[in-house]
Amino acid sequence: MSAAEPAAPRHHLSWGEVRDTFLAEPEVQQAYQELAPRLAIVRELISMREQRGWSQRELADRAGMKQPQLARLETGQVEPKLGTLQRLATAMGCRVRVRIEPANSTASIASNLEALHG
Fold first, then answer.
1. The CATH number of the domain where 66 resides is what?
2. Cα–Cα distance for residue pair 105/54, rounded to 1 Å
3. Does the global pTM surpass 0.85?
């Protein structure tokens, strides 16, 4: 290739392509499904905060916690505790609702994966 020829465009994998490649492995798919409830909660928390136009610091202040605590929760570094979720929900004018469903329900598994894929 000469200096005058443009380089061929490189294809970079999208997040969906990377995710689907990993999810083809049964062990990865099982771990992903086990994390689905936690990730769905975090996704909902971030969405509710962003709908209000609040920064992490603003929500943390309103909930009586430190911004780094909220950041660790939102990035999945820590598992959210029910009490913490209740404080955050109350600060946003919301409430926490918990449901327990049969684990072998294909509808439940499909909805968990759909929630993650957004």
1. 1.10.260.40
2. 37
3. no
Mind listing the pLDDT tens digit for each residue in 62-115?
A: 999 999 999 999 998 898 899 999 999 999 999 998 888 787 765 555 555 555
Q: How far apart are CA 13 and CA 114, in angstroms?
A: 20
Q: What is the extent of the structural domain holding 111?
A: 26-117
Residue 103 lies in a domain: yes
Q: Tokens 């049969």 label which residue?
A: 102
In which residue are the tokens 């202040």 written?
61
Give CA–CA dist 96/83, Å, rounded: 10
Start-end of H helices in the chain: 15-23, 26-51, 56-63, 67-74, 82-91, 106-117
Size (the chain), residues: 118
Half-sphere exposure (Cβ direction) of 53: Cα atoms closer than 13 Å: 0
Report DSSP state, residue 10: P
